[in-house]
């Protein structure tokens, strides 16, 4: 990861969860704040890339999404290869919410963590600026619709 960032100036890293395991200094965290990390929970779990601090193999409860988000790193959630790992983006978020304590909702509204991760993904997407702006508008409409639905379910 460091060679990619420092030598080649990449702005997007697939996975990258090993960084948290080995620990980051405050200056390293600052250096990585402009990089987007595409986290793929199911892929990482199935490939044995989630490690516990004291053991060889971890679970999604050990997944570093929350730790990376709290550090201020640009994290997103992705499926990696959905056909190989048999997952969808909705399933990835559901698993994170259930097993890694990453809330999708807070006080009846979409959690800020979810919105920030989606915005990180939008900004890092490989698409034209026009499409990126349209996607931003669609996400805002989606959040508003979900909030309205939540208010009818949980008054």
- Proportion in helices: 40-55%
Average predicted confidence as pLDDT: 85
The radius of gyration over CA amounts to 16 Å
Number of strands: 5
- The low-confidence parts are none
Give the biggest beta sheet.
Answer: 3 strands, parallel
Features of the shown structure:
155 residues, mainly alpha, 3-stranded parallel beta sheet, two-stranded antiparallel sheet, 9 helices, 10% strand
Question: How are the SSEs placed, and which strands pair?
Answer:
Elements: H1 2-6, E1 12-14, H2 18-22, H3 26-32, E2 36-39, H4 41-46, H5 65-70, E3 74-77, H6 82-85, H7 89-99, E4 105-106, E5 109-110, H8 112-124, H9 129-153
Parallel strand pairs: 1-2, 2-3
Antiparallel strand pairs: 4-5
């Amino acid at each position: 990861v460091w060679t990619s960032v420092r030598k080649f100036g990449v702005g997007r890293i697939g996975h990258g969860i090993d960084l948290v395991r080995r620990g980051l200094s405050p200056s390293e965290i600052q250096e990585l704040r402009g990089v987007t990390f595409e986290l793929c929970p199911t892929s990482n779990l199935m490939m044995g890339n989630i490690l516990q601090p004291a053991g060889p193999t971890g679970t999604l409860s050990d997944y570093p999404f929350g730790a990376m988000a709290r550090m201020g790193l640009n994290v997103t959630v992705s499926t990696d290869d959905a056909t190989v790992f048999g997952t969808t983006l909705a399933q990835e978020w559901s698993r994170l919410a259930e097993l890694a304590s990453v809330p999708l909702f807070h006080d009846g509204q979409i959690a800020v963590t979810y919105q920030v991760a989606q915005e990180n993904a939008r900004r890092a997407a490989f698409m034209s600026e026009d499409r990126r702006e349209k996607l931003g508008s669609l996400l805002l409409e989606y959040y508003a619709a979900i909030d309205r639905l939540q208010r009818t379910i949980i008054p």
